[in-house]
Design a protein that fits this description.
Elements lengths: L1 E8 L3 H11 L3 E2 L8 E8 L2 H8 L6 E5 L7 H10 L5 E6 L4 H9 L2 E6 L4 H58 L11 H29 L7 E4 H11 L1 H7 L2 E5 L4 E4 L1 H17 L6 E9 L2 E8 L6 H5 L22 H11 L3 E7 L3 E9 L2
Parallel strand pairs: 1-3, 1-4, 4-5, 5-6, 8-10
Antiparallel strand pairs: 2-3, 7-9, 10-11, 11-13, 12-13
Helix pairs in contact: 2-3, 5-6, 6-11, 7-9, 9-11
Length: 372
């Protein structure tokens, strides 16, 4: 159980002791909270004492009377705002005019508790304030988590671009200094490797554009009825040069299946699944694509006879920038974003992706999209 500190600022000893007696036996619990809240009260009789205490410790909640000897509650509230203290303030007053209410709200007060109040009214206000505190805390945590994820993403992205740039710089330096002599034919391998690095960076940039697209766009804006079989055939045509080069047989099965989606989302999905099925296949292997309806969903299934994966490798497959590195995948280019993008597109439509794989026998990916 978490304990929240409540600072009661009121010049009436009876009010301070009454609030303390009521709140220190009170517990707040909501179904959406991980744990209950209890309260520990501190009390001061003036605004000046409150500000002195706030220099040492910041409570989670302040119950602030407006009419105080010396500095009044509105002045205290204004200073709390200037200090940018992370605290929820509720005004307790017998003189809550519209003008005071408007100014107090503008200066950050979250609630008004008019005097005199009953124990039930005080508890009801504290319940509301505690809920606001909890939601504020959750929102703050989510923002911090979002910042952390963004920095991690930029860090990984920088590394992914830095490595090929370093290699490319090294190859160009080698050619500039004529390390292999004056005959340009001696640099064929160096040039091929440089072009491979450029191609890898281009693929990474294209994947990042897809990744950004699915993060930023609202699918509702471009949704239309799409023939899944037709999009699968288009994706097969796109990878045909690589298919011919590796002598891989690609076939497409299934009836016409229509689905309401942004066609470009489905193209990204098919292109990633099919290019992976070819890249991670054996020369002379096979890829089977099938689209079909199953109960209240459509299924996109891509099965290959490739190098497959272990269970541990499959468990890491959909994380961003993760590439399965072993002796079988050495030399296969990729950004580590493709399957993460496929998974996120599936989620965008309320679906998910499944995979089953056996090392050296192949993999089968199934994207399940619910029919609406």
């Amino acid at each position: 159980m978490e304990t929240l500190t409540v600072l009661v600022v009121d010049d009436e000893p009876g009010i301070r002791s009454g609030i303390k007696r009521i709140l220190e036996g009170h517990r707040v619990s909501f179904p959406f909270m991980d744990e209950d809240y209890q309260f520990e009260c501190r009390e001061v009789a003036s605004g000046e004492e409150a500000l002195t205490m706030l220099e040492v410790v910041t409570p989670e909640i302040i119950l602030l009377d407006n009419k105080l000897p010396g500095m009044d509650g509105m002045e205290v509230l204004e200073i709390i705002k200037q200090r940018n203290l992370d605290v929820v303030v509720a005004m307790i007053t017998s003189y809550a005019s519209m003008e005071i209410a408007a100014k107090a709200t503008n200066d950050g007060a979250r609630d008004f508790i008019p005097k005199p109040f009953t124990p039930a009214e005080l508890k009801s206000s504290i319940d509301l304030i505690t809920k606001q505190y909890f939601l504020k805390k959750i929102t703050s945590n989510m923002k911090e988590e979002g910042k952390k994820i963004r920095y991690q993403f930029l860090s990984v992205l920088s590394h992914e671009l830095k490595s090929p740039l370093n290699a490319l710089e090294g190859y160009l330096q080698m050619m500039k200094e004529r390390e292999l002599g004056e005959d340009m034919s001696a640099y064929k391998t160096v040039l091929d490797r440089s072009l491979q690095r450029v191609d890898g960076m281009r693929s990474l940039i294209m994947d990042l554009l897809d990744f950004t697209k699915i993060r930023m766009e609202k699918k509702e804006e471009k949704v239309e009825q799409v023939d899944l079989r037709e999009r699968a055939e288009l994706a097969i045509a796109t990878i045909n040069p690589m298919v011919i080069q590796r002598n891989i047989k690609v076939s497409c099965f299934g009836d016409e299946v229509f689905y309401d989606a942004d066609p470009s989302d489905l193209d990204i999905m098919f292109n990633n699944l099919l290019s992976n099925a070819v890249k991670y296949n054996h020369d002379g292997g096979e890829v089977k694509v099938q689209v079909y309806k199953k109960e209240q969903a459509v299924v996109i299934q891509v099965k290959d006879t490739g190098i497959g994966m272990s269970e541990e490798e499959v468990s890491r497959l959909f994380k961003e920038f993760v590439r399965i590195k072993n002796s079988r995948t050495r030399g296969i280019p990729g950004s580590g974003l493709g399957l993460s993008i496929v998974s996120k597109i599936a989620q965008l439509y309320g679906g998910h992706i499944q995979v089953s794989s056996i090392p050296d026998q192949g993999s089968e990916f199934r994207v399940i999209l619910p029919l609406t």
